[in-house]
Amino acid sequence: MSAGDELVRCESLVVGHRGRGLLPPIDMSLRRGQFWAVIGRNGSGKSTWLRTVLGIQSPVSGSARRMIDGERFAYVAQAADLDPMLPVQARDVVMWGRLRGWNFLRPLASRDDVAERDAALDHADAAPLRNQRYGELSVGQKQRVLFARMLATDAECVFLDEPTAAMDLVAERDVMERLGHLAHEHHRAVVLVTHYLGLVAKYADKVLFLDVDNRIVIAGDTAAVLREGAFRDRYGAVLEDDAA
To answer: Which residues contact 55 (CB under 8 A, 6 or more apart)?
Structure first.
């Protein structure tokens, strides 16, 4: 890949709170066409790393540099993070992914916006939900709608925080396949925070493994990271269970 494919560069990045680092410095690049999984146990620093890279919080030291315009980034939070009391339909939530830069000179969605919204609903298997009120959907249905909103954007780098929460195994696999397709066929960078290691092993190209207890950071090709002793110490039994 060329230098132009680099979207985010983490250089000696230390993430943490109130000036205290949680993990050793992180050096890695996010590039177009890559599907990254960020894994680690609860409290391992995954969300802190994510918020730092997104610019929501400042690094303790080092840097997380965006190599392209910030509007080319998209973030899909967990379904519970969107206020269920908002009086909007599912199709409205998806349309939000198209309306960056909305203003009085462009008060309504364009025909192209509507077409992209409808295509995203179809691709996320959320079309039957389009006219339902978002707050009345199940957690799994909400996550599908948020996934459709992400698909509706033209973002080049996409971050997702456990998008398969509350989905069944078939739906989880379907989402992973779609994310892989988004990275490989549409040449976008996809970064997924997840706990589903079996799916990571099958679908992700790259892994960022964080272990705050032992202050370990490992980033690299999925197969290589999953063979690391530090990873096996944490998750070896889990992987064996998945393979059984």
So the answer is: 64, 66, 70
